[in-house]
Amino acid sequence: MEKTATVRVDLSRGVGDRSYDVLIREGVLEELGAGSLRLPDAESYYVVTDSNVARLYGGRLRNGLSGQRRGRVELLSFRAGEARKNVGTAWALASRLGALGAERGSVILALGGGVVGDVAGFVASVYKRGIGYVQIPTTLLAQVDSSIGGKTGVDAPWGKNQLGTFHQPLAVITDPTVLGTLPRREWINGLAEIVKCAVIADEGMFERISSLPAGFDGSSGIPVELIVGACRVKAGVVSRDERELDLRAILNYGHTVGHALESSSGYRLSHGACVILGMLAEGWIASQMGVFREADYEKQTELLLRIWKGAGVTGLRPVLSNKKRLLRFALADKKTTSSSLRMSLPERLGRMHTTKEGRHKIPVSDEAFVRSIDYLREALRSQR
Ligand code: GLY
Prior knowledge:
By secondary structure, the chain is an alpha/beta fold. It has two domains: 4-180, 3-Layer(aba) Sandwich (Rossmann fold), CATH 3.40.50.1970; 183-381, Dehydroquinate synthase-like, alpha domain. Helix content is 46%, strand content 17%. It is built from 14 helices and 13 strands. Strands 1-2-9-6-5-3-4 form a seven-stranded mixed β-sheet, with helices on both faces. It has a two-stranded antiparallel ribbon with strand order 7-8. Strands 10-13 form a two-stranded antiparallel ribbon. Helix 5 runs parallel beside helix 8 and helix 6 packs parallel to helix 10. The model has no long low-confidence stretch (mean pLDDT 93). Bound molecules: glycine (GLY). Residues 145, 149, 151, 248, 251 line the site of glycine (GLY).
């Protein structure tokens, strides 16, 4: 089994080579603390983390790095929680950096889950017009998705990630052993993205996930090779379309319906649970449009329903019953400038459909969206 891997994000085309490696190795955080892993050179390091992760790993990392006389090392922590992903937190972090005298040669080490990575990356992108940062993701979702690709941002009162930048990290350092402390809700978040990566680009990985034991919900651990596989898929897509001009949209598979469910539930339903349902619904739309090969559609449905059953999610019924509200959220959330919904849809396991013009964003009618919610209600009812 693959226990260590280096995945390259190749951004060597265009102006300046901003390529970087995602290093995935069990125990790599210990190596970092012990000073046996080399970090990108910097005059000072600022470990940005949240209160939960600071308690588990923050002090150890700072003390380890300080002991190696790598220059100045400071720990900057903010209160944990999605609600902290805002401009107030970014401002507080930037102010601390300013007060500590951080210069342009400083490097931020973003140690934590998606909120930490997004906020720390955002601050790194604007502080003194941009300093370097390293992602050290500690949740499964951050390891397989948000730490790779350079999307940074904070939420605003009018929506999620409304202030943000593209700012690629200098490196991503991923230690799967830290996942042992994750709550169950976090597993489904990462697992959903792993399944998504398999459907959009890696049929072999899909088969591997399907062959996991029946009650599999990720809480008993995720094989490292699946983390590596998902990172490969994400890195490959970002390398080809950093700015989401077209191809990168395939990473949003399951997220149009998924985000609508998440928003409509007031974020009570987890991102992962919503993405599982989103892939069920968007897969159904692809099948209805005749683009998703039937046998593959059935395999996807079977796996997603199995994961859904193991996830033990409650409180879905009121969310699914208000279809107009869901459609409103989907239309408000869409990441395109056109007035209709567009989705990335699978053609077969491991390959996404393209239009005649070779585009990955497929127009989908409001009616198809609404009918896919009816489909979800039926499919889940027959699961009870
Ligand atoms: N999570 C989707 C992307 O990074 O593009």
